[in-house]
Specification:
Helices cover about 15% and strands about 35% of the residues. It has about 210 residues and is of the alpha+beta class. It has one domain (about 10-210).
Length: about 210
C-alpha cells in the first residue's frame, strides 16, 4: 500500500509489568494525573501521537475498515494510551511522508492512515486505507473525538483512559486519490466518483461539518 500524494496533512514487557506490578509500575499504560491526561489529549489533537509515538493504524481496521461484511462499526472506542506499544498492536509501524502504516505479520493485510488535523472544535480527522491482500485499497475518512475517562486499574486505583471514539466514517472508495482538508469545522473532500461518498451522487467535491453527535 502506497501513501496518496494528494492527501494533505493541515510490547510484551509493558504487559508483564501491567499484570505483575499494577498501575504504579505501568505508568506507560496507566495515566495517573489529570494534568498528564490533558497533556496527552493536547498531543493527540496536534500530532495524533501519544508520548511521541504514532497511534497504531490497526485501530482503524478494528473500528470497521477491515470488516466489510457489517454495515457499521462494532468497536468504536479505544484507549489510545494503552494501544500504543501494546501486544495487541505489535506489528511494525512504518512512517513515510506523513503516512503511517502497519502490515499484519504473516499476512498480506495492511492498513495505513494520514492524520489530516484537528477541527476548531477539537475533533480529529484522518484518512485510512485498508487492503486485505487483494488489488483493492479501500479509503475511508474518519472523524474522531478524544476524551479523558476515569477508570480503576487492577489494584482498584483510579487512573485515566485517553479514549478515542469514532464519531463518523465516510467511504471514499477503492484507490481514491483526492484531497481532504479542514477549514475550521468543515472537512472538504475532493475527487469522489459516482456512487462513492455521503450521498452516492455524482459530485466530485463534498463538504462535511465535523460535529459531535
Amino acid at each position: 500500500m502506497r501513501p496518496t500524494s494528494r492527501l494533505r496533512a493541515a510490547g510484551g514487557l509493558a504487559l508483564f509489568c501491567l499484570l505483575a506490578c499494577g498501575g504504579d509500575a505501568a505508568a506507560g499504560v496507566y495515566v495517573q494525573t489529570a494534568a498528564q491526561a490533558n497533556a496527552l489529549v493536547a498531543e493527540l489533537r496536534k500530532s495524533f501521537t501519544v508520548r511521541g509515538q504514532p497511534i497504531p493504524p490497526e485501530i482503524f481496521r478494528d473500528m470497521g475498515d477491515g470488516d466489510m461484511a457489517d454495515s457499521g462499526s462494532i468497536w468504536v472506542t479505544v484507549d489510545a494510551a494503552a494501544a500504543v506499544g501494546s501486544n495487541l498492536y505489535y506489528d511494525e509501524i512504518k512512517q513515510e511522508h506523513g503516512w503511517i502504516s502497519q502490515k499484519k505479520a504473516g499476512s498480506a493485510e495492511e492498513i495505513g492512515y494520514e492524520f489530516i488535523g484537528a477541527t476548531s472544535n477539537g475533533l480529529l480527522v484522518a484518512v485510512a486505507a485498508y487492503s486485505g491482500g487483494g488489488s483493492g485499497d479501500f479509503f475511508t475518512l474518519h472523524i474522531l473525538d478524544v476524551a479523558v475517562a476515569p477508570a480503576f486499574d487492577d489494584n482498584g486505583k483510579l487512573y485515566r483512559r485517553i479514549n478515542l471514539t469514532l464519531d463518523r466514517s465516510v467511504a471514499l472508495g477503492d484507490r481514491w486519490d483526492g484531497e481532504a482538508k479542514i477549514t475550521r469545522n468543515v472537512v472538504t473532500i475532493t475527487k469522489l466518483g459516482p456512487g462513492v461518498g455521503i450521498d452516492s451522487g455524482k459530485r466530485q467535491t463534498v463538504t462535511i461539518e465535523a460535529v459531535r453527535p
